[in-house]
Specification:
Layout (H helix, E strand, L loop, with lengths): L16 H7 L4 H7 L16 H16 L5 E2 L1 H9 L5 H15 L4 E2 L6 H13 L6 H19 L4 H8 L6 H7 L10
Parallel strand pairs: 1-2
Helix pairs in contact: 3-5, 4-7, 7-8
Length: 188
């Protein structure tokens, strides 16, 4: 007995299916059935501007699931998240935020609440730099942290963040580019 069904399939993969077809490891007929509309999504390491918003989302999700009162991510923690390479992609970020919520005792996610491998990878990168950072590097880091903090406090609204910082809102695109935060937390 045959049962007919009208369905749409949404599938995701990190494999190159066209190459799989060419190599004979993926069925060609299935490939053409699935490949009606393809949305390529770059890895998280290539979308650093998405990290603050995703981290906030995962924080919100985890704190509610665990009944915790954590309200924010410290700017220095956010800097660590942005600078991490994310080999595990979005799932690794989600797990890192869940770990932080489990470990964190206060109301803000501190760097010490992040998984040790994430903090260690940042420390390893810092050691590769030429010794202690100079004044310019420290000022840039401080500026970035203040910028991130203002964006977090204004839910990513760039104009409000600029007003909070006492700067012209027209300077925000420059500052976001300078610190590789092109998208801020969300568009105005």
């Amino acid at each position: 007995m045959t049962t007919r069904a009208n369905v749409r399939v949404i599938a995701a993969t990190n494999a190159d299916l066209a190459k799989g077809v060419a190599d004979g490891v993926f069925r060609e007929d299935l490939y053409y059935r699935l490949n009606v509309f393809c949305i390529p999504l770059p890895p998280l390491r290539d979308r650093k501007e998405d990290i603050p918003l995703l981290a906030q989302y995962f924080l919100h999700q985890s704190r509610h699931a665990m009944g915790k009162k954590i309200r924010a991510i410290r700017p220095e923690t956010l800097t660590l998240l942005i600078e991490h390479n994310w080999p595990g992609n979005v799932r690794e970020l989600e797990n890192a935020m869940e770990h932080a919520v489990i470990v964190e005792k206060g109301q803000e996610v501190l760097p010490s609440s992040l998984p040790s491998n994430l903090v260690k990878s940042h420390d390893d990168k810092a050691c590769e730099c030429s010794g202690n950072p100079g004044l310019r590097e420290r000022l840039n880091l401080l500026e970035k942290q203040i910028l991130l903090d203002s964006l977090l406090r204004t839910n990513g609204i760039k104009k409000q963040a600029a007003m909070m910082l006492g700067i012209d809102p027209r300077n925000m695109p420059y500052l976001l580019r300078k610190h590789h935060l092109h998208g801020g937390l969300r568009p105005n």
